[in-house]
Structure formats: C-alpha cells, structure tokens
Design a protein that fits this description.
Distance between the termini: 51 Å
Order of helices and strands: HHHHHHHHHEEHHH
Oligomer: single chain
Strand order of the largest sheet: 1-2
Shape: globular
Radius of gyration: 20 Å
Length: 305
C-alpha cells in the first residue's frame, strides 16, 4: 500500500512537471515569434548588420555555426576555469555581469524596434527618450536577482524574456538555413557535453544529486538556468527553442500552422526527455526536441505549410 501510494504520488508530480514544462515551451515559443515579428516588421535588424557570414552557401552556414559553437565553448571554458581554481562562489557574479551586459544591449534593440511600429510610432520620440533607462533598469534588476535571489520567480520570468529576445534576434540575423544547422550542431554537442564533456563536470560540481528545488534555485548556476518544479532548464536550451520557433514561423514564409505543429513537436520532445530523466541523473534538453521538431518542419514544407 505504501509503495502504491508513493508511486501514485510520484506519477502526479511527474505529470505536473510535464504540464508545466509544456506550458513553458508554449510561452517561450509564443514570445519568440512576437519578438521576431517586432524585429522583422520594424526593419531594425537590417540596420544593425550582423557579425555572421551573410552568404547562404554551405561554407557560410558552416562558418556561422562554428562561430556560435566557439562562443558556447568560450562560456563553458570560463565556467570550468572558475571551478578548477575553486572560484565557484564567483560564478553568480560572472553570470550577473554577462546577463546584465547582453540584456541591456538586446533590450535597447527591442525598445527602439517597438518605437517604430504603429500605433507606438506616434510616441517614438518619447519612447526612445526612455529606452536607455528602461533597458538599464531591466538589466540591473536581472543582475541583482542573480546575485541575491530574493525573488526566483521574477528572475525566471526575466530570464525567459531575455532568452526569447536573444533567440529571436539570432533567428532574424542568421541567414537562411543557418539557424537549423546551428541547432543540429549544438544538439549533437549537447549529448557529448552532458554525458561525457564539460557540462557533465560543471553540473557535478555545482548541482548535487537529489537537490531540492530551493537548493537548485540558489545554486551557483542561477542565471544560467530556469527552474520548473525540481527540473533545471538551461538558458542555452531556452535560446535554441526560441531561435527555432522564430525560424519555423518565418522561414521560408510566415506560417502559423507550421509554427503550431513544430511547437507541439518541441513540447513532445521535452516530454520524452523528462521521461528519460527519471532514469538518468542529467539529460541533454536539446537533441530530442530539436530533431523531432526539425522532422515535423520538413514534413510541413513538403506538404506546403
């Protein structure tokens, strides 16, 4: 009887977590498309330029993918260095600086983009006047909450906004098929990194086995993850889901039906990942959602969605 009660309770918790994760995917995907439409309709992304190779050739796709992989490796290497030299306690400060600096720049892009769109265009001068103040305020708030997590729910909300903004910006600035190539390369790297590579070591040194939700919320990796129930989802995963959701909707033409189907595929992929997590200590959150949603995307293109 006790075992049956325990199993029933465990299943209810897993069901609740799965529903919450599915809701998170829908929120991430919806925000991403909204941000992508703001950028594409305002034309600000075209004015910004891009650090990536603009060509849609195989060489351009490869170079752009390697640039992003290099940036991922650079960030991972910094975390490993802090762990190796026993500076784990400094990770929240490093994360706070990195998030605040990038959040500030990204938020400014979106505030200026919004100021160009109707019906806000009539208030363009007024909005642009306060864009800097708003951007800095949001960035500083996120940094403060990373260093001192007095409101973890607010921090998670800010991180989701930040991750979806960054993912949509990548989707709009990366040319052609590059976002899909980037997602595939990072999904493959995610498998290696979580099971055998640097992320495995980072998790083992910062997230203890069987930690409670409260412990995970206050772990040194806060700012790099959002926590849903007792599950930590990396910001890299949020960014990739966002980039893919925006690309699924926009490329090669706007399609709400294609976006809905691929969003369902990402949510199902994350659900299957959660089921596997019951038998593993850690699981990469990119491979199944990425490859399942890409398969649905290809089918949608073939049938004209």
């Amino acid at each position: 009887m006790e075992k049956d009660t325990y199993e029933s309770g465990r299943r209810r918790i897993e069901y609740k977590t799965s529903l919450l994760m599915g809701l998170i995917v829908i929120v991430i995907s919806s925000l991403s498309v909204a941000w992508a439409l703001v950028l594409s309709k305002s034309g600000v992304a075209d004015l910004l330029g891009s650090p990536f190779v603009p060509e849609e050739s195989p060489q351009g796709v490869l170079i752009n993918s390697l640039i992003i992989l290099f940036l991922v490796l650079l960030g991972t290497g910094l975390l490993l260095a802090l762990i190796r030299f026993r500076k784990i306690h400094t990770i929240p400060a490093v994360m706070a600086f990195a998030v605040a600096f990038s959040f500030w720049g990204i938020a400014e892009i979106y505030f200026y983009s919004l100021a160009t769109l109707a019906p806000l265009a009539r208030y363009s001068d007024y909005l642009q006047q306060y864009a800097d103040l708003l951007s800095i305020s949001v960035a500083v708030l996120a940094a403060v909450l990373i260093i001192k997590p007095v409101s973890t729910k607010l921090l998670d909300i800010l991180l989701i906004i930040y991750g979806t903004m960054a993912g949509s910006l990548l989707a709009v600035t990366l040319p052609g098929w590059t976002p899909f190539a980037v997602a595939v390369i990072l999904a493959v790297y995610d498998v290696y990194s979580v099971f055998y590579g640097p992320l495995k070591r980072i998790l083992e040194n910062t997230v203890g086995e069987g930690q409670s939700r409260e412990s995970k919320l206050k772990s040194p990796l806060r700012g790099a993850v959002i926590v849903v129930d007792n599950i930590a989802l990396g910001m890299g995963d949020v960014l990739m889901y966002s980039m893919l959701s925006s690309s699924y909707y926009l490329f090669p033409f706007n399609s709400a039906a294609r976006w809905v189907l691929t969003t369902i595929a990402i949510a199902l992929g994350l659900y299957f990942t959660l089921k596997m997590l019951t038998r593993k200590k850690y699981m990469p959150a990119l491979p199944i959602p990425v490859f399942l949603s890409l398969a649905v995307y290809v089918i949608c293109l073939l049938i004209g969605f």
